[in-house]
Specification:
109 residues; 17% strand; five-stranded mixed sheet; alpha/beta; globular; 5 strands
């Protein structure tokens, strides 16, 4: 897993995997692994990460729910290469993203 992309409340940025690990461990961030279940089974899930398959139904809603559950905390996305994390971060936090437009979100059960 390479760069962890920060979303919500700021432009997408990168953290090293060590920085992401330390920040998650100290409670500074919510670490979300957006790889597939097959990838988690193959390599394991990073300790402390929330598993949230980017291709799963209602991914965007579940991610927004994490934001509601953890107000004020940065949410960091990680994946195998960093490419999906960056794409999702740009989609959600970009100039035309759902959150950037301050559109409504609902808590996910």
């Amino acid at each position: 897993m390479l760069p962890a992309s920060v979303v919500f409340g700021q432009a997408p940025a990168s953290l090293s995997v060590r920085e992401a690990y330390e920040a998650a461990r100290s409670g500074e961030i919510i670490l979300v692994d957006i790889r597939s279940a097959a990838e988690w089974a193959d390599t394991g899930l990073p300790q402390g990460a929330v598993p949230l398959d980017v291709d799963a139904t209602a991914f965007d809603v579940r991610l927004a729910g994490l934001r509601l559950d953890h107000p004020g905390k940065r949410i960091v996305l990680i994946d195998r290469t960093g490419a999906q994390a960056i794409a999702v971060a740009q989609k959600l936090a970009g100039p035309d993203g759902w959150l950037a437009e301050k559109l409504p979100v609902a808590a996910y059960p």
